[in-house]
């Protein structure tokens, strides 16, 4: 057996605590956690709650980096607790706090209501030009792989809120939409099934919208899914400017195929190759 | 919509200022290496050189253009910084008005100065 | 939920310098702001100084004579350096914010190569050009200091 893998480290967790019923301001608590190689920050938090302090509160769900619940500030960097190996960060001490730029409800639980409200404000759903089409779909919508590539990267967002915590504008401007809503606005504006650019630009082209981004690019730096919100925001700005200068190319709407009959359609190309080894 | 137009002009004036202020800096601070537009003896900023440049209408026009573009670009930038500090709406309106009025005032002062040379 | 007591946790202006991550681009954004404010401040004073001196040779030399002290010369050099940085970083920002230097949307495969990686060569080039301009400008300042 490999001796190195059996070694146990004693790591100090400094955790930002706050109980709204008892405290007037947040404070720091210290715990010692026995860590084996391979343990994640999230597992350390569970150990504390199970053996030392059962009042410790935080959000988690899938514990595998797809739900976006466990975002927190770990040793000065924003990350998902389930995705972060303790020994990759430090072998002596971890300092854990909630995501900044959101109010704290309790301990490591941020109030993400502004995130969801701003997301709603950009109307994050397909808006067809033909309004009847949205209530009673008339047929299938067919997209080429090139049309899909225009927005696919931005669909991987898990709404974890890390980008909002890292953004310098979010630090001072409470009305700023934030990287995630603007990225989602662009994701829908550039989708060839969508016709809602002119309504969304009233929300995104405002004095607290896309133009308050100055490419500090910290959002893309911390995003755990590689969504690259900074890129999407710059594309959104480009589209807003081109539209203002009346130079915006009308994007070709996607093809519609007949009326929905439940039967498979001819001529659909094969799916793209796997990116992960199947063997 | 308004913000889009303000920002687009911020970019356009930025490029204008880049070229015009770049020229100004090259004339003034790279005189020993380049020696552009400073025919008289002495520094680029001596009266003789300033006077000889200002006699050309072309120079005066570029200075006035630079003045306007730089004022717009700079004041919009400062407005952005102030707006990001979440001022209340009343203060936002006050900043907008002050910057427009102040900018026009400074433009008039500067244009008057650059035209004054022709009185001699 | 609406009546729940919450504690504010915004980073404020310190969040402009750093918070949650520590990339080069954030530093450049912060320096771009500082140089912008510095140049604007100098510019407004510059308008008044040059206007009041324009009316005759006597006026000009009187006003210019007030700026002989080395503090003003160093300050002027700092404004020049601030301009050099602000100009070249500004070119980089125009290219990025109009969507040219950030690359196309692509499927993310770990380890992620984002727009940050795509604009790194441009960032390096602009910083080198800014240094070259500052060095070229320092020649005149040193020459005239004697």
Strand content of chain A: 15-25%
CATH class of the largest domain in chain A: Mainly Alpha
Apparent shape of chain A: globular
Number of strands of chain A: 9
Backbone CA Rg of chain C? 22 Å
- Write down the overall mean pLDDT of chain A: 90
Series of secondary-structure elements of chain A, N-terminal to C-terminal: HEEHEEHEEEHHEHHHHHHHE
Biggest sheet record of chain A: 5 strands, mixed
Could you give the topology of this structure?
The complex is a heterotrimer of chains A (279), B (120) and C (146).
Chain A: H1 3-6, E1 9-17, E2 27-35, H2 41-51, E3 71-74, E4 77-80, H3 86-89, E5 93-97, E6 104-106, E7 109-110, H4 113-121, H5 131-135, E8 140-142, H6 145-149, H7 162-166, H8 168-172, H9 179-189, H10 197-204, H11 218-222, H12 229-244, E9 255-257
Parallel strand pairs in A: 1-5
Antiparallel strand pairs in A: 1-2, 3-4, 3-5, 6-7, 8-9
Chain B: H1 2-29, H2 47-54, H3 57-83, H4 89-116
Chain C: H1 14-17, H2 24-53, H3 57-65, H4 70-97, H5 115-145
Account of the protein in words:
The complex is a heterotrimer of chains A (279), B (120) and C (146). With 279 residues, chain A is an alpha+beta fold. Chain A folds into two domains: 3-110, Beta-grasp domain (Ubiquitin-like (UB roll)); 113-257, Fumarate Reductase Iron-sulfur Protein, Chain B, domain 2. Chain A has twelve helices and nine strands. In chain A, the strands form three sheets. A five-stranded mixed β-sheet of chain A has the order 2-1-5-3-4. Chain A has a two-stranded antiparallel ribbon with strand order 6-7. Chain A has a two-stranded antiparallel sheet with strand order 8-9. In chain A, α4 runs parallel beside α9 and α9 packs across α12 (229-244). Chain A is globular. The two termini of chain A are 28 Å apart. The longest helix of chain B is centred in the N-terminal third of the chain and has 28 residues, at 2-29. Chain B has helices at 2-29, 47-54, 57-83, 89-116. Chain B is built from four helices and no strands. Chain B is elongated, with a radius of gyration of 18 Å. Chain B has one domain (2-119): 3 helical TM bundles of succinate and fumarate reductases. With 120 residues, chain B is mainly α. Chain C has a single domain (23-145), classed as 3 helical TM bundles of succinate and fumarate reductases. Chain C contains five helices and no strands. Chain C has helices spanning 14-17, 24-53, 57-65, 70-97, 115-145. In chain C, α2 (24-53) packs across α3 (57-65) and α4 (70-97) packs antiparallel against α5 (115-145). The longest helix of chain C is centred in the C-terminal third of the chain and has 31 residues, at 115-145. The chains are: A alpha+beta (279), B mainly alpha (120), C mainly alpha (146).
């Amino acid at each position: 057996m490999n001796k190195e893998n059996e070694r146990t480290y004693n790591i100090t967790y400094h955790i930002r605590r706050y109980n709204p019923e008892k405290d007037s301001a947040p404070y720091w608590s210290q715990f010692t956690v026995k860590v084996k190689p391979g343990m994640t920050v999230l597992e350390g938090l569970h150990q504390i709650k199970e053996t030392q302090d059962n009042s410790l509160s935080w959000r988690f769900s899938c514990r595998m980096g797809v739900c976006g619940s466990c975002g927190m500030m770990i040793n000065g960097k924003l990350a998902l607790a389930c995705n972060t190996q303790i020994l990759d960060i430090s072998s002596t001490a971890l300092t854990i706090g909630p995501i900044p730029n959101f109010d704290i409800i309790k301990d490591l639980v941020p109030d993400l209501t502004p995130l969801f409200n701003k997301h709603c404000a950009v109307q994050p759903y397909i808006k067809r030009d033909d309004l009847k089409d949205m209530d009673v779909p008339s047929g299938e919508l067919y997209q080429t792989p090139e049309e899909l590539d225009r927005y696919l990267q931005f669909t991987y967002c898990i709404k974890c809120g890390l980008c909002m915590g890292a953004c310098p504008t979010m630090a001072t401007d409470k009305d700023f939409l934030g990287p995630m809503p603007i990225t989602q606005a662009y994701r829908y504006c550039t989708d060839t099934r969508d016709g809602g650019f002119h309504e969304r630009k009233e929300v995104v082209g405002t004095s607290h919208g896309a133009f308050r981004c100055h490419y500090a690019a910290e959002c893309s730096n911390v995003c755990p899914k590689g969504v690259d919100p900074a890129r999407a925001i710059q594309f959104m700005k480009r589209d807003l400017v081109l539209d203002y200068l009346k130079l915006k190319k009308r994007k070709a709407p996607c093809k519609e195929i007949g009326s929905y009959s439940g039967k498979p359609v001819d001529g659909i190309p094969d799916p793209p190759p796997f990116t992960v080894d199947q063997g | 919509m308004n913000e889009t137009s303000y920002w687009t002009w911020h970019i356009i004036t930025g490029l204008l200022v880049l070229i015009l202020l770049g020229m100004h800096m090259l004339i003034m601070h790279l005189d020993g290496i380049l020696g552009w537009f400073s025919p008289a003896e002495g520094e680029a900023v001596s009266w003789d050189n300033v006077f000889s440049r200002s006699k050309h209408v072309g120079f005066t026009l570029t200075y006035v253009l630079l003045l306007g573009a730089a004022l717009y670009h700079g004041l919009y930038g400062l407005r952005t910084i102030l707006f990001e500090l979440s001022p209340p709406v009343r203060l936002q309106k006050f900043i907008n008005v002050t910057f427009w009025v102040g900018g026009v005032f400074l433009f008039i002062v500067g244009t008057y100065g650059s035209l004054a040379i022709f009185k001699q | 939920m609406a009546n729940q007591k919450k504690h504010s946790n915004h980073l404020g202006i310190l969040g402009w310098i750093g918070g949650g991550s520590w990339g080069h681009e954030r530093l450049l954004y912060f320096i771009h702001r500082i140089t912008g404010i510095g140049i604007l401040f100098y510019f407004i004073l510059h308008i008044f100084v040059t206007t009041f001196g324009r009316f005759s040779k006597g006026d000009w030399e009187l006003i210019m004579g007030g700026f002989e002290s080395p503090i003003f010369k160093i300050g002027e050099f700092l404004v020049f350096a601030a301009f050099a940085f602000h100009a070249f970083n500004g070119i980089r920002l125009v290219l990025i914010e109009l969507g040219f230097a950030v690359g196309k949307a692509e499927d993310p495969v770990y380890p992620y190569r984002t727009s940050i990686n795509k604009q790194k060569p441009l960032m390096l080039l602009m910083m080198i050009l800014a240094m070259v301009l500052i060095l070229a400008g320092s020649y005149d300042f040193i020459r005239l200091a004697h």
